Amino acid sequence: MTEAVEIVEVGPRDGFQGIGPFIPTETKLSFLERLVGAGLRRIEIGSFVSASALPQMRDTPEILAACARWPTLRPQVLVPSERRGREAAAAGARDLAYVLSVSDSHNRNNVRRSPSDSADEYARLLDGLPPGTFVRLNLATAFDCPFEGRIGEAQVLALLDRLVPMKPDAEICLCDTTGRADPAQVGALFAAAQARVPQARTWAFHAHDTYGLGLANVHAAYARGVRVFDASFAGLGGCPFAPGATGNVATEDVVWLFERMGVATGIDLSALIPVARDGAAIPGGLPGGRVREALSTNPDACAAARLT
Amino acid sequence: MTEAVEIVEVGPRDGFQGIGPFIPTETKLSFLERLVGAGLRRIEIGSFVSASALPQMRDTPEILAACARWPTLRPQVLVPSERRGREAAAAGARDLAYVLSVSDSHNRNNVRRSPSDSADEYARLLDGLPPGTFVRLNLATAFDCPFEGRIGEAQVLALLDRLVPMKPDAEICLCDTTGRADPAQVGALFAAAQARVPQARTWAFHAHDTYGLGLANVHAAYARGVRVFDASFAGLGGCPFAPGATGNVATEDVVWLFERMGVATGIDLSALIPVARDGAAIPGGLPGGRVREALSTNPDACAAARLT
């Protein structure tokens, strides 16, 4: 193992949020405990949003408070506005993910604002945050929009021109919301973005596997120097506002990819697989990924993930 | 579209061979007709092998003869020995694929010979072929073996040293039989092989998607200049001698990858998807792939494959 990547587990937010039947808080905490046990250190545990819009996320404050029991865990929460960011910070969140979409129609669908207004909102959010707050900035529909199709690089770069100087040490995540990015596009956009705003300290990639390109895109981003990757255990997830866009890339698939390549993830695949199997069985969930099933039908292969 | 790749449809051989219930010859021909209609120009239509070992392939001579009705089609047949190669040529085959495994245990399991003996057999096969026969040389377990695990580059290169000079204009296909190759390994092996036997005219890649890395590996091979890719409609397939190795990379997924990248495949995805859907429903089949389902649940997305 010569290098390392950081996997941000987003299943408890991006995976759970689209599930209709409420997952009991204790069940969520049990999944979190097992994910931490498998070696995950950064987990997006929920979001501060309207309980009527996303009732599944209504227990996020309670879950955030409970995370104090796991000293290795950095719990991250998603916030779509200044007000929700302040609420999250007041509730003790130290890792915030703010999201806006590059495409106008997706952003309006999501938060009823233009991307430009969401950029202004980001500035206001940053102004009010306690010192030391870690900020992740998610650019949704950075590659493709369910309503507008493929997004041009210039549109993303123009938004980065505005956003990055507001907080150059924020972690910038380019998100393939629909799963319709391809590896050439992923490599090209990260290269262009890195050249355009070289002051950005950390880049991250959020892949969906809807069309089977999740790992190809992750690898393309890795080849451009990206070392932080979102993934969802059992491949749970999808954007409730992006029709057909089921399927975050599965954490177990991303771990398999990197461990096979000799790149350390810090995650114990044999501990993760049973959690993913139980995650795939959550009533109302939309699981994805290949490794869970491949290793479950062929358990001897589990050992093959590590070559060393 | 600035470049082009050639997709070799292997479903009618690699996909069908592991299916227990005999698929009626007329059904096979109907699938072939629709695959040709979708734009596939090279199809591995069967194999000349022992009818007791692989009864599903027993109608290959009949299918080969019927292929004359499609003037755009180059039907390819798999042969494991000199004798079977002669039989195939006598039956009118002009495109032969000879297969041997890099790993000793897999080759013995498959054809009851050492790889070295299979290399000698390849030389004898070549000696007896009619002039103008196109030869594809498949190196199975070039990356990983179900019995021996990861295969070292040196082992593959030593075999290429022997095989390539016998017929430098053969198409050399490196096969990820287990689906456990990773994109770094795929890129590195193709680079090493191209440097080692520069006289080899054409390289091809045969990917499996068992662990979700099929398209990532295809893209890695493409990045190294490979332009010929095996794929199976509906992702049907797997090696009957490689436990757990279900899942050739799906043709529709490979088409999606390249069309999204702006690389021409010559295949009409909207014509292929219904064939793949019917292929996935063949009794006893083991389908795979993501694009078929993604486009079936979200038909509008079909148009999105082409960006131009």
From TrEMBL, chains A, B:
Keywords: Lyase, Metal-binding
InterPro entries given in the database record: Aldolase_TIM, HMGL, PYR_CT
The keyword Calcium appears for this protein: no
Protein name per Swiss-Prot or TrEMBL: (R)-citramalyl-CoA lyase
Family per record: Belongs to the HMG-CoA lyase family.
Upper classification of the organism: Bacteria, Pseudomonadati, Pseudomonadota, Alphaproteobacteria, Hyphomicrobiales
Pyruvate carboxyltransferase domain segment(s): 5-273
Molecular function via GO: lyase activity
Metal-binding as UniProt keyword: yes
